[in-house]
Amino acid sequence: MPIFFADKRTRNIANLHCGRKGLEKKIIKNVVKIFDNFGTFKDDLLVAIGPAISKEHYLVDKMTLKEFYRKAENKNITDKLTKTKNDLFFSDSNHFRDQNLNQLDLKRSAYRQLLNENIPQTNINISNLCTYKFHNEFYSWRRSKTISRQWNLICS
């Protein structure tokens, strides 16, 4: 999942790609810390979460899901979540429980990690495009099992 960062005051930028393991290792926290070191104020940091696999198409077993939430999620973040337009983008439904599969929502986890780093909700934009579903527009390893690339660009 591509995540774009831009400081609207200093014009510093960063672009990262992360998935489940990157979120588990708190890569977002590390990038925000780099911006802090360059003097970025959290209110000036704009973040866009680009097209990525949606939870409807990212199915994992129960153990993987538990391990992910143990490593990637902050138990205190629930207190910070309020009902906003961005929050309504997420759904807690899971139609695959009877198949012993669970939906993993990478975009939601990235969003929560950004909130945990005190990035204002109004500064976070989340694409609703799914790379798995839109096969003519995007590459998806989970869909095709072939190696390919997607390019992302950010200019300052």
From TrEMBL:
SUPFAM superfamilies from the UniProt entry: CNF1/YfiH-like putative cysteine hydrolases (SSF64438)
Source organism, top-level taxon: Bacteria
InterPro entries documented for this protein: Cu_polyphenol_OxRdtase, Cu_polyphenol_OxRdtase_sf, Cytotoxic_necrot_fac-like_cat
Keyword Transcription regulation: no
Xref: Pfam families: Cu-oxidase_4
Record keywords: Hydrolase, Metal-binding, Transferase, Zinc
Record keyword Phosphoprotein present: no
Catalytic function, reaction form: S-methyl-5'-thioadenosine + phosphate = 5-(methylsulfanyl)-alpha-D-ribose 1-phosphate + adenine; inosine + phosphate = alpha-D-ribose 1-phosphate + hypoxanthine; adenosine + phosphate = alpha-D-ribose 1-phosphate + adenine; adenosine + H2O + H(+) = inosine + NH4(+)
Any one GO molecular-function label of the UniProt entry: hydrolase activity
Function, as annotated: Purine nucleoside enzyme that catalyzes the phosphorolysis of adenosine and inosine nucleosides, yielding D-ribose 1-phosphate and the respective free bases, adenine and hypoxanthine. Also catalyzes the phosphorolysis of S-methyl-5'-thioadenosine into adenine and S-methyl-5-thio-alpha-D-ribose 1-phosphate. Also has adenosine deaminase activity.
Family, per entry: Belongs to the purine nucleoside phosphorylase YfiH/LACC1 family.
PANTHER family registered for this protein in UniProt: PURINE NUCLEOSIDE PHOSPHORYLASE LACC1, UNCHARACTERIZED PROTEIN YFIH
Protein name in the entry: Purine nucleoside phosphorylase
Native source organism of the sequence: Prochlorococcus marinus (strain MIT 9215)
Upper taxonomic lineage: Bacteria, Bacillati, Cyanobacteriota, Cyanophyceae, Synechococcales
